[in-house]
Amino acid sequence: MASQGGGTSDTASSNSLDILGLSAEIVAAYVGQNTVSQAAIPELIRTVHEALSTLNNGGEPPRPAEKAKPAVPVGRSVQHDYIVCLEDGKKLKMLKRYLRSHYDMSPEEYRRKWGLPPDYPMVAPAYAARRSDFAKKIGLGKGVRRGS
Questions:
Q1: What local confidence, expressed as pLDDT, does residue 59 receive?
Q2: Of 79, 101, 120, 128, which sits with the fewest C-beta atoms within 10 Å of its C-beta?
Q3: Domain extents for the chain?
Q4: How confident is the model at residue 66 (pLDDT cuts 50, 70, 90)?
Q5: Residue of 40, 50, 59 whose CA lies nearest to 20
Q6: Which InterPro entries does the record associate with it (predicted)?
Q7: 17 near 58, Cβ under 8 Å?
Q8: Rounded CA separation 100/77 (Å)
């Protein structure tokens, strides 16, 4: 019985590695050292197999995803009258609803993605101050007592 893929010959059949076997070994080693759910293993195998196949066929290795670059520098994203969305650069008074409707993203996800502190505002400072003043004028937060 002839050996397959184990020699050093440059022929097409011996040059093509045992991609499936290598994929299994890589995934087994990874899963042995990392916590991976059972549901994620098939996709992990597919991804590793695809990457090895691409490399074996002379293709370029997949480039790692580049870190997202904000539309404006984080330091300039909070202005007195508006907040600039780091996703697209749009100037807004209220960011939370915009993130949910346009990017299906919560404030926590947005802060995590861009490395923002937990107290990063989702509302422009001037807008928040106006709302606060209005609430005080109409007596909200005073705990109005009713006579019994």
A1: 72
A2: 101
A3: 17-56, 74-137
A4: low
A5: 50
A6: ROS/MUCR_sf, ROS_MUCR
A7: no
A8: 18
